[in-house]
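Entry for the shared binder. Reason: the reviewer on the internal report wants the predicted structure included alongside the sequence.
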Amino acid sequence: MRTYFQLITEAKDFSKEDAKRIGDKLDVDWNKVDLDQFRIGLGVESEHDDGSELDVVGSEKDLAKIVLAHLKELPDYYTKLKQVEEEGVPANSISGGGVAGIQEPIIRRKPKNQSK
């Protein structure tokens, strides 16, 4: 298993501007999601965008959703991941269990009857 450090050094580098642009496309509520955690997450999760038959990322939107799923469960997921990796604890030990995470939606939704 690769370490957090390996993932970060091998990951795509996303600027804050790129991260905000990607999140804005999904209408992320930046009052509930930390932009830096989101940016780091995009880089870490880009490991799943490898073009192989097991590639689970088909677009920036898919990548962002993976990151947001982690951040909804644990708002500082990527900071915790780094700490866990540095301490030599398996990464799968990180869990917010949905209890400590953000309970309300982190993507603003338009009412269904509202036109685009």
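Summary line for the report: The CA atoms of residues 44 and 55 lie 14 Å apart.
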